[in-house]
Specification:
The complex is a heterodimer of chains A (481) and B (364). Chain A has 17 helices and 18 strands. With 481 residues, chain A is α+β, with helices and mostly antiparallel strands. The mean pLDDT of chain B is 95. The chains are: A alpha+beta (481), B alpha/beta (364).
Chain lengths: 481, 364
């Protein structure tokens, strides 16, 4: 790629050797994440193919690359597992992708203090396995733990399995090493300036995390897994709230699956609530008794233990619905727990109106909030129909935001909802931080803070309305999917 | 990291997701059969690690084989694959040697007469690697010695045995494998055995999953891995660990991909090892479903010997981390590549098949 090369590229390629490439073949693979967005659609909004991809393995290398990027005005896009679907780790206008997956491993572990230094490209499941060999474990992890990295999940906000017990990831990180937009390396904590909290959920737009001191826990003495079923999600949501209030420290995870989702992955047509307990044997046993009592009180049926173990065993396989669908589109929202039944009902209505199935599941991440994912069929091989299917996402996000929710993760594709979900005050503060730490706007541009023109407040709603109408016509003429 | 090749190469194109993208392009009619794409698609040992890890539970191994077939159908098979196909077509095996030499390893068996009986109800499918490659002919020799000791001779096809066909299937040339598959079925059926044993997991996997379809249904005999057969013999008293010499060794076991992840056999080899006196079994960090591939599968060794060696080196280092002095496995190809890696690393680690350890324990 000599013609039009960014100055200094040749030096970087030489320095990093086989950990840097500008080959067209390789760069193309970094133009996508988990979403199946057709190239034609992506190309309307962004220039997703990076100019260069590098695989740093040290903080020094990251700093060197970021300094070069700052000097040449090159966007920098950090990429971990690439396990989201909102374009978080996909370039908006080319630049250099920092593939952090080689920058992995467990550093100093302090069992007494309950902390461990972890490199940002370490996958959560690998980390947990390494820790368990020492009698320790992570406190929480995403449902994409086999692929998602420590740095990536911190950048996304860090809510998932175990958050109900241990809180969001930001609260479990004692310190982080971060490379700022000018190449400076800083160590941030809850009390530093800027504080660690700024970087959690910033999606790589304020700095590149190169190390994390994470709080870890002892491997729990016991586990208990229960699965409860009801025809409708409402009693299960009530049960979840009851358990969150009363089950105490043994309650590790609550996971709700809607009837639509269960129909796709099992022979169950009902909603289910998985209740996962961890801790001292006595506490787990007592909490298990509570689960049985409260399930009965809420009119929910306790399923046999093998079903519960199977559900726990499948916690990383929520996307197995992909096997029965050509492809998927999905919305991921943080929602007040109380609003979950109404949201699920609105999803069902939306699906009926547009003659498509909606499948939802939710992690309960605190006593009053759930992280809910709603999926529906979409075929990325058919660009025109895929575009029309995108219109349903607006309906899902509108439903969630109306009920007090917000998109979990913004990236590129959720930027149209940011203004409404975050509110003017919060958005102003976020933009202030961005201007302060990255005045050149080079760190993961095009994400988080506001939409590009085609996804903006004028074009986006009009376009989605048009596409929605076209979709209805297509369905009327050609049948539902 | 579920994919050993991705762990080694590091680029997204070499990841399971990258290979899915390559398959999507090639199988979806969107091109994707340029040399770089073909190369990347074939840099894979078919270990099944990605299938085990896939959050969508996609049978990635199956579509990777489909992709290889597509590459072959488009005439884009690399030279090493064509050479493999040529060897099987010409000689009935993947080695450079004439198939008439297939049973030459019997010359090393002290009591060949007591070890081999064409009328035995148990047949032994040796496999090309153990038949022809000196580094691992010790495996069938050990098994033959044990068979003689147990008074349970086995029927050996010798030159009538052909390649099981898996190297051709893995090369995307499944159609060409049909001839050897049909031949082997007829040869084994003709021998009248009720049980066919093999020490090669790839042969076993092919006999288990591909041969019944080619045979039009049931084969008419059971097919077992050697370790399962030996365990059965131990349970029946034909091989009594009380009569074995203590080996005094710390042993770690490598799960061959085709035996472990792809066939679900994890316990039999370990149980055989545990029953040997003087063996202390220690586990590597990645075992059973999570075992890392040695690099020997999927024709990778033919396509990219250096990459295959790198994978083997990683696994040897993992074995060394256990403190074991012996790395045992239940696959002749794994033994070959891991022994080679241990030698290159100058590692104080003996690489051996489980059958060979059993043979040593019961050596008079």
């Amino acid at each position: 790629m000599p013609e039009g090369r960014i100055p200094g590229t040749a030096e970087l390629l030489r320095e990093l050797g086989d950990r840097a490439t500008d080959s067209a073949f390789e760069r193309g693979f970094y133009a996508r994440d988990m979403a199946d967005v057709p190239g034609a659609v992506m190309g309307l909004v962004a220039r997703p193919v990076p100019d260069l991809v590098v695989r740093p393995v040290s903080t020094g290398e990251v700093a060197r690359i970021v300094r070069w990027a700052a000097a040449t005005g090159t966007p920098v896009v950090p990429r971990g597992g690439g396990s989201t679907a909102y374009g978080n780790a996909v370039p908006f206008r080319g630049g250099v992708v920092l593939d952090m997956n080689g920058f992995r491993g467990l550093g100093k572990v302090d069992p007494e203090r309950g902390t461990a230094w972890v490199a940002p490209g370490t996958a959560w499941l690998d980390l947990d396995r390494d820790l368990r060999r020492r009698g320790l474990a992570v406190c929480s992890y995403p449902s994409s733990a086999p692929t998602a990295t420590v740095g990536g999940w911190l950048a996304m906000g860090g809510l998932g399995i175990g958050s109900l017990r241990h809180g969001p990831l930001a609260g479990l990180v004692e310190a982080a090493e971060v490379v700022l937009a000018d190449g400076w390396v800083v160590r941030v904590t809850g009390r530093s300036e800027p504080p660690l909290g700024w970087f959690a959920g910033s999606e790589g737009t304020l700095g590149v995390v190169t190390g994390v001191r994470l709080r870890v826990r002892r491997v729990p003495e016991a586990e208990g897994h229960h699965l409860v079923e009801a025809p409708d999600p409402a009693p299960l949501v009530a049960l979840a709230r009851d358990l969150a209030e009363r089950a105490g420290d043994a309650l590790f995870n609550l996971h709700l699956s809607g009837p639509g989702y269960n129909r796709l992955v099992s022979d169950r047509a009902a909603a289910t609530l998985a209740v996962d307990l961890e801790g001292p044997a006595g506490a787990v046993s007592a909490a298990g008794d509570l689960v049985r009592r409260l399930s009965s009180r809420h009119g929910a049926a306790l399923l046999p233990e093998p079903a519960a173990r199977g559900e726990w065993g499948a916690r990383f396989r929520s996307l197995r619905v992909k096997r029965v669908l050509p492809g998927l589109l999905g919305a991921e929202l943080l929602l007040p727990l109380g609003g979950l039944p109404a949201y699920l009902e609105r999803c069902r209505s939306l699906g009926r109106r547009h003659r498509t199935g909606m499948a939802s599941y939710a992690h309960v991440v605190s006593r009053d909030r759930a992280l809910v994912v709603t999926l529906y069929p979409a075929d990325g091989r058919r660009s025109a129909r895929y575009l029309m299917d995108l219109s349903l996402l607006k309906g899902l996000y509108d439903a969630g935001i109306d009920l007090g929710g917000a998109p979990y993760g913004v990236g590129l594709w959720n930027t149209p909802h940011v203004a409404r979900a975050r509110g003017a005050g919060e958005l102003r503060e976020l933009r202030r931080r961005k201007a302060l730490l990255d005045p050149g706007g080079l760190l993961n541009p095009g994400k988080v803070y506001g939409p590009p023109l085609l996804l903006g407040p004028v074009v986006f709603p009009a376009a989605m309305g048009l596409l929605s109408g076209l979709r209805r016509l297509a369905v009327a003429l050609g049948g539902a999917r | 990291m579920a994919c050993p090749v991705y762990a080694e190469i590091g680029w997204e194109s070499a990841s399971p997701r990258g290979r899915v993208e390559l398959a999507r392009r090639a199988l979806g009619g969107g091109g994707g059969l340029d040399p770089a794409s073909v190369r990347r698609a074939l840099e894979c040992t078919l270990c099944g690690g990605c299938r085990h890890a896939c959050p969508a539970e996609i049978d990635t191994r199956r579509f990777l084989l489909d992709l290889r077939r597509e590459i072959g159908a488009a005439g884009r098979s690399p030279e090493p694959y064509l050479a493999l196909a040529g060897a099987v077509a010409e000689r009935g095996n993947v080695s450079p040697f004439d198939n008439a030499c297939r049973a030459d390893w019997l010359d090393e068996v002290e009591e060949a007469g007591a070890a081999v009986d064409p009328a035995s109800p148990v047949g032994y499918f040796v496999g090309c690697v153990a038949s022809f490659y000196p580094m691992v002919t010790g495996i069938p020799v050990s098994f033959a010695g044990l068979s003689a000791r147990m008074g349970r001779p086995v029927a050996v096809l010798g030159p009538r045995e052909r390649c099981c066909g898996f190297p051709l299937i893995a090369a995307g040339m499944g159609a060409r494998a049909r001839e050897v598959i049909r031949h082997n079925i007829e040869a084994v059926r003709g021998s009248g055995v009720g049980t066919l044993v093999t020490g090669c997991p790839s042969c076993l996997h092919t006999w288990t999953h591909t041969y019944p379809g080619a045979a039009g249904g049931a084969l008419g005999f059971e097919v077992l891995h050697l370790t399962r057969y030996l365990l059965r013999c131990m349970d029946e008293g034909a091989l009594d660990p009380a009569e074995a010499e203590p080996l005094d060794a710390v042993v770690t076991y490598h799960d061959p991909c085709d035996l472990g992840r792809n066939l679900g056999v994890y316990d039999a080899p370990r149980e055989v090892l545990r029953r040997l006196p003087g063996v202390r079994l220690v586990e590597m960090a990645h075992t059973r479903e999570l075992a890392r591939c040695c690099g020997g599968g999927g024709n990778l060794q033919a396509l990219d010997p250096e990459l295959a060696r790198a994978l083997a080196g990683r696994r040897v280092r993992e074995a060394l981390d256990t403190g074991a002095s012996v790395l045992a496995t239940a696959c002749q190809q794994c033994v070959q590549v891991l022994a080679d890696a241990a030698r290159r690393l100058r590692a104080r680690l003996r690489v051996v098949d489980v059958v060979q350890l059993v043979g040593e324990a019961f050596e008079d």
